[in-house]
């Protein structure tokens, strides 16, 4: 395909659109290696700088990823997370046919900070469990979750192995808590240095930052969680209905 040099759209954007169409049509499958910068430059008659700009844009869009010394490859399709139901990470991944797991970074009891106490409707400095995990699907890191739970509502919670166990399953099956709804907010930002390392990202990388307060049947919160999801692997969607 020949790019149009007299077109108002810059050459790198034309190349980006062409490569995007090839990926989305299935010409390059998941984890397939794209041609090298040199080969793309020769094929389309552009400079390697133009090719690099197009590839960088596709990386930022989450469509491709690079491996040092090996080339550029097609990413897996983004995970479309529906916001209509209250589910945990493990359940979501199992429904998609993937194997969930976790790397536990912290599992401690500590006094609640002012914001954690407010979210969980506790007195300041009340004891809470703090569970921090990297969440993985098929061994690929997708999110970092920083969970807080009232210690008096789930005693001995940290005796469970949360590298394998689902927190929501434990709350339901071991403590009898029925999770009925959640208040959730999501915003986009750039990953910080720790998130870049834990999620194996290259700066600058987009993150979908989420906060959730999970409510049990009795009407009070049992969980306050702050999460950072890979923006190149996730998108969130919701079904909207008109008012009236």
**CATH homologous superfamily name of the largest domain?**
Chorismate lyase-like
Biggest β-sheet: count, sense, barrel?
Answer: 6 strands, antiparallel
Shape: elongated
- Helix fraction? 25-40%
Cα radius of gyration in angstroms: 22 Å
CATH T-level topology of the largest domain: Chorismate lyase
Please tell me the overall pLDDT: 87
CATH level-two architecture of the largest domain: 3-Layer(aba) Sandwich
Run of helices and strands: HHHEEEHEHEEHEHEEE
- How are the strands of the biggest sheet laid out side by side? 4-5-6-9-8-7
Let me know the number of strands.
10
In whole angstroms, the N-to-C terminal distance is 51 Å
Query: Low-confidence spans: pLDDT under 50, at least 5 residues?
Result: none
Structural class label: alpha+beta
- Approximately how much beta-strand content do the residues carry? 25-35%
CATH class of the largest domain: Alpha Beta
User: Number of helical segments?
Assistant: 7
* Total domains: 2
Brief summary of the model shown:
The protein has 7 helices and 10 strands. The protein is an alpha+beta fold and 244 residues long.
